[in-house]
Structure formats: C-alpha cells, structure tokens
Write a structure and sequence with these properties.
249 residues, alpha+beta, Alpha-Beta Plaits, five-stranded antiparallel sheet, two-stranded antiparallel sheet
Length: 249
C-alpha cells in the first residue's frame, strides 16, 4: 500500500486510533497533574527541581509506557513486529535514565550532602508516571499521596524523634602550628560533641594545616549551638580561620 495514499493516511485517523489517542491524552494529563502535586513540595521549599521538572518526568514516563498497551495500532496499524514488545524493558530503561537525572540534583558541599530527597522523589515521580502508563490509576494516586506525605510530614517526624545533630567543621590553623588530635577531641567532648570516626581529613596549604571533620552531638539533648561553637573556635589557640555548617547527609 502506498504510504501517501488517502486510505493509508485515513488509517492513522481511524476510530480505534483516535480512541486510543484520547485515552493516552487523559493518561498524560493525569500523570502531569500528579507530577505537579509531588513537585509543588520541592518548589515550595525553593529546590532547583520544582513543579516543571516533576511534571515533565511523570508525564514523559507515562508517555513512554502507555504506548506499549496498543502495539497493534502503531504506525496506523501497519506495524510489522515478530513479537509483542516487552514493557518491562521500557520500565527498566526509564528508571535507569531517571537515575542520571536524580544524580544531577545531588550536591556535595564540603562534608554535607544535599539533594538526596529531591533525587529520591524524582525517581518516585517517574514510578508514578509508569503506573499511570500501564493503567494502575489507583496505585498512581496512592503513590502520589504517600510521596507528598513522606516529604512533608516525615521531616517533622524526624525532628520530633530523638536524633544526634552533626556539624561539618573546617579549620585552618596558623602557619607552622601543629594541632593535636587528642586535644581536638577533648575540646569537642567538652562542648557535647564527638568527632565522627573516619571523618577527619588533613590538608597542608602554604605550611598551614587544614583539618576537616564532622562533630556529632553526644546525644539529642547535648551539643552546643553552631554560634556557640563559632565563639569557641575563635578563641582556640592557633586557629587562623574556620567554617561551620550543619551537616546534612
């Protein structure tokens, strides 16, 4: 059959194809709305990946998945395939590709890591799109609700539960000053902190030693505030400059 004939072109707009396109349209619209709901929480907190990112990820995942529900209508019903396509391979490809997008929002600032929640929620948004694409609308709505609840309320639960605060500390000592680790640990304990095992790293720059480490509060009730630690560090012998930040992993 001539691909440019009127009959061939009409096949692309036959009643089954149009009906399928309408179903796909509502799938994409629903996936977009669910993705926007998940992304709003990130946008509200000023994250780089916001409603647009989540909406596009969810909608695109649904689009790539939903087309495998009607392979007999591909190319206007003229597709020639030896076997039915395997949607599981498509889902694996989607989730793998989203992994690279999620990795792009993870940032390391010194000893602190940010963006893990955004990366995990982007992956969740992709899974929502896949569920919409295969027709599990109830499961997609439930996953959307659970994702939003997790991002909004679990952080409050974490603050309510006992936890040990961490502080990332970078100290540059004066030229030719030789700090001692046992003295550093003793000073930290006096302030209610322990130096996390394996976190200490030492650099030398222009004969000035630079120490980087993470101090963890001894328990959830102890530990000086960052401002109090800053005052202590400013009076510590041999300190030339320092930087303190809440350590988030």
């Amino acid at each position: 059959m001539d691909p440019l004939s009127l009959q061939s072109l009409a096949d692309y707009w036959s009643q089954p194809v149009v009906a399928t396109n309408v179903v796909i349209f509502f799938n994409l619209l629903g996936a977009l709305i669910l993705g926007l709901l998940v992304g709003y929480e990130r946008a509200y907190h000023g994250r780089a990946a916001g409603m647009r990112t989540y909406g596009l990820v969810c909608m695109a995942s649904a689009a790539v998945t939903v087309i495998f529900g009607s392979p007999d209508l591909w190319y206007g019903g003229h597709a020639t395939m030896a076997a039915s396509p395997d949607p599981s391979h498509v889902v694996q490809g989607i989730l793998t590709g989203i992994g690279f997008l999620g990795a792009g929002v993870i940032m390391r600032e010194g000893l602190s890591i940010r963006g893990l929640t955004s990366a995990a929620s982007i992956w969740s948004s992709s899974a929502i799109g896949v569920l919409v694409g295969v027709g599990f609308y109830g499961a997609a709505i439930l996953l959307t609700a659970l994702s939003v609840i997790c991002m909004i309320w679990v952080s409050r639960l974490e603050r309510w539960l006992p936890s040990r605060a961490g502080v990332a500390i970078a100290v540059r000592f004066k030229k030719n000053f030789q700090p001692r680790e046992e003295v550093l640990r003793k000073v930290a304990r006096q302030r209610g902190y322990d130096i996390a095992e394996g976190s200490l790293s030492i650099d030398y720059n222009a004969e000035q030693p630079e120490w980087h480490y993470v101090a963890i509060a001894s328990d959830n009730k102890k530990g000086s505030s960052v401002s109090e630690l800053a005052q202590m560090m400013s009076s510590y012998e041999g300190v030339d400059s320092f930087q303190l930040a809440h350590c988030r992993h």
